């Protein structure tokens, strides 16, 4: 079942395809899953507030082609004052294909680049609130994707580009979204069983303490184990990709606390559905709730419906 392709999401893909800028790599887990990655590493300031709260984690994708990532930092729990969102995700950078070198390359459109280059004003303020900031990587219709690396060397080379970006911009991790690759374009190969596992394995070696998350969708969702290794032993989180629905990602190795079966589109999912998904998340003992498409519009009333269920508190909006 295909997730709804809302206008803003399509804008993000289209703008990236039209104005991609190659990123040059000269720039420079609970106790592997028991130690919560949200509570370690990635500090950008001597003074960092806490986002830790009972009731699980809230994760939010922001379409930075049209909205500010800083909007995620404007919502706090009325009781306790913690940030509503634990993880803010920059949506999205791309995996592109260089037809000359026949290699996958990381690409940032001008809007993504603007967030990264201006990290002092766009990213650090969120990290100083205790939030984690990830960069989502998305296919770009060019045939390059996470599932068609044909050698560990090729997978490791792309993992190095991702790791270098995280290091250079002091990000907290990488999110994989296996959409829009259009495997086969430009003479590229179709998905294989080893590629995604090799890629995440190599990235984990380079980023032992950073967050790796997986938007549970696309060819990668059915290629999660190979050679005795599982994505669930390498990644930190995975969440449902179908907005307005409740579906547990089938990622062996990840505990309930690191899985998000509930996913909502803030602009399209009804309050009653969002509340119902929160109730199911809480009653079934899962630890992640996924939000998509946050804009500048004050949504604290909408968020409060879910927050009262998950965290026992309404939400306060601070412009």
Automatic annotation (TrEMBL):
<keyword id="KW-0732">Signal</keyword>
<feature type="signal peptide">
    <location>
        <begin position="1"/>
        <end position="19"/>
    </location>
</feature>
<keyword id="KW-0326">Glycosidase</keyword>
<dbReference type="InterPro" id="IPR017853">
    <property type="entry name" value="GH"/>
</dbReference>
<dbReference type="InterPro" id="IPR054861">
    <property type="entry name" value="Endoglyc_H"/>
</dbReference>
<dbReference type="Pfam" id="PF00704">
    <property type="entry name" value="Glyco_hydro_18"/>
</dbReference>
<protein>
    <recommendedName>
        <fullName>GH18 domain-containing protein</fullName>
    </recommendedName>
</protein>
<keyword id="KW-0378">Hydrolase</keyword>
<feature type="domain" description="GH18">
    <location>
        <begin position="56"/>
        <end position="313"/>
    </location>
</feature>
<dbReference type="InterPro" id="IPR001579">
    <property type="entry name" value="Glyco_hydro_18_chit_AS"/>
</dbReference>
<dbReference type="InterPro" id="IPR001223">
    <property type="entry name" value="Glyco_hydro18_cat"/>
</dbReference>
<comment type="similarity">
    <text>Belongs to the glycosyl hydrolase 18 family.</text>
</comment>
């Amino acid at each position: 079942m295909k997730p709804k392709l809302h206008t803003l999401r399509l804008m993000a893909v289209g703008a990236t395809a039209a104005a991609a800028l190659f990123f040059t790599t000269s720039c420079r887990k609970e106790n592997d899953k028991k130690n919560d990655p949200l509570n370690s590493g990635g500090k950008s300031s001597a003074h960092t507030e806490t986002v830790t709260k009972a009731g699980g984690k809230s994760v939010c994708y922001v379409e930075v082609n049209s909205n500010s990532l800083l909007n995620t930092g404007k919502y706090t729990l009325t009781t306790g004052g913690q940030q509503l969102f634990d993880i803010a995700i920059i949506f999205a950078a791309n995996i592109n294909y260089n037809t000359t070198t026949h290699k996958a390359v990381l690409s940032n459109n001008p809007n993504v680049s603007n967030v990264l280059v201006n990290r002092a004003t766009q990213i650090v303020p969120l990290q100083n609130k205790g939030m984690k900031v990830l960069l989502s990587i998305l296919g770009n219709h060019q045939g390059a994707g996470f599932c068609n690396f044909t050698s560990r060397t090729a997978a490791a080379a792309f993992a190095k580009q991702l790791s270098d970006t995280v290091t250079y911009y002091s990000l907290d991790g990488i999110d994989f979204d296996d959409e829009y690759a259009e495997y086969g374009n430009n003479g590229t190969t179709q998905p294989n069983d080893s590629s995604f596992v090799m890629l995440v394995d190599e990235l984990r070696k380079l980023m032992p303490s950073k967050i790796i998350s997986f938007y549970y969708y696309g060819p990668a969702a059915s290629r999660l184990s190979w050679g005795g290794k599982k994505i669930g032993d390498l990644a930190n989180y995975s969440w449902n990709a179908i907005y307005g629905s409740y579906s547990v990602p089938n990622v062996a190795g990840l505990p309930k606390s690191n899985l998000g079966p509930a996913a909502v589109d803030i602009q399209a999912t009804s309050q009653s559905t969002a509340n119902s998904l929160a109730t199911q998340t809480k009653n079934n003992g899962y630890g992640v709730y996924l939000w998509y498409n946050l804009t500048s519009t004050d949504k604290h009333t909408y968020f409060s419906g879910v927050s009262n269920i998950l965290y026992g508190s309404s939400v306060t909006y601070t412009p």
